[in-house]
Amino acid sequence: MEFLDLFIVALMPVLKTLLITAVGLLLAIDRIGLLGPEGRHHLNNIVFFVFTPALMVSNLSETITFSSMVTLWFMPVNILLTFIIGSVLAWILVKITRTPKHLHGLVIGCCSAGNLGNLLLIIVPAVCDETNSPFGDSSTCSTYGEAYASLSMAVGAIYIWSYVYMIMRVYANNSIKDVNTHDSTISITLSGESAETFPETCTESLLPSRDCPSSDDHSDQVELTHTTSGGKEKVSVLNQIIQCIKMSAGQINLKMLFAPSTIGVIAGFMIGIISPIRTLMIGDNAPLRVIISSASLLGEATIPSMTLIVGANLLKGLRRSEVGVLLVVGVIVVRYIILPLLGVVIVKAAHSWGMVGSSSLYQFILMLQYALPPAMSVGTITQLFEAGESECSVIMLWTYAVASFSLTLWSTFYMWIVS
């Protein structure tokens, strides 16, 4: 296909997303007020508890089989790579820009966690429906594309509410500690002497939070040094790492980790993989096909509802702007230049090594996972910890504004590569 044709194909879903986002922004203004704070709260709950799990169940159960699991195994690995690489780049960014310490968690969250949910669910089916789509038959493309996007959403949610949640929580707790003590250096003194300072990340993870067990509950779990008859003996580095991992694991929000969307994915996999259940529920002659049909009907409301919420949440970013320009530009460079380029290298290398199949649609989605704007769940986490909410709104506003151009260009480039 010509590059211009691919550009038009990639542009259409982005324009649809922008239009629906603009409607959400309009509904959130004070004069209309349909998506004010209370309205967004109720709509978000419906999407979170009803629409999204229904979408996961219906899409995955119809397309996922035991044999297809072999094809999809690389996707969780690919998404994990986006989080790890994004975190490393974010760490470099905060050092270069001298970002205030209380915003480090926010920057890491924005650079590591992409919007692996509703944007893929909008872009992929819209690309498949275009007459010039390079991915073949539109119905087959849409079915498999939505299944890939649904799995991407579920895996992304697991990583966000474990990996990103833990990092942002550590920095939020550390900020609270700094405010209360006016001292950013934490040390442990034994027998009147200053003990060896713990690694920064481990030290922060020991700090108490409002909804976690206090540090007193773990007071006997971590010891930096202990005194013997022969003097002070250092605990081995391995023991320190193990204790750090234990404390970090204790901060994972299991309730959010096993969110309704994750449960929907598990149910979808079970229906699709287990043959007796699949026979009962999938197919034109299946006796319980009405269950999947009803779930599919509910799931269709997920995409427009989530996009309206995104638009409504961006309103706060228009009202307050306290983030430095250099920091916003840095996040944009990480998410829309460095990560997408690395995504091409990683996916192509995985394909050449036989880790990714020859499906052009699958390769396209794997690459696109590196070019997405920050996940809206990052904003939810800042609201939970009441840290960096206004700064997050500003970053979201500008990154999503730039995404309208970058997503179009990268989608075009990715389709040109795989077609």
TrEMBL record:
Pfam families with a match to the protein in the record: Mem_trans (PF03547)
Keyword Membrane appears in the UniProt entry: yes
InterPro entries referenced in this protein's UniProt entry, alphabetically: Mem_transp_PIN-like, PILS1/3/4/5/7
Stretches the record annotates as Disordered: 209-228
Protein's GO biological process: auxin-activated signaling pathway; endoplasmic reticulum to cytosol auxin transport
Alphabetic keyword roster: Auxin signaling pathway, Endoplasmic reticulum, Membrane, Transmembrane, Transmembrane helix, Transport
Transmembrane parts of this sequence: 6-29, 72-94, 106-127, 147-168, 256-278, 290-311, 323-349, 361-385, 397-417
Subcellular location: Endoplasmic reticulum membrane
Membrane topology: Multi-pass membrane protein
Biased composition (Basic and acidic residues): 213-223
GO cellular component terms listed in the entry, alphabetical order: endoplasmic reticulum membrane
Function: Involved in cellular auxin homeostasis by regulating auxin metabolism. Regulates intracellular auxin accumulation at the endoplasmic reticulum and thus auxin availability for nuclear auxin signaling.
Protein name (database record): Auxin efflux carrier family protein
Organism: Quercus rubra
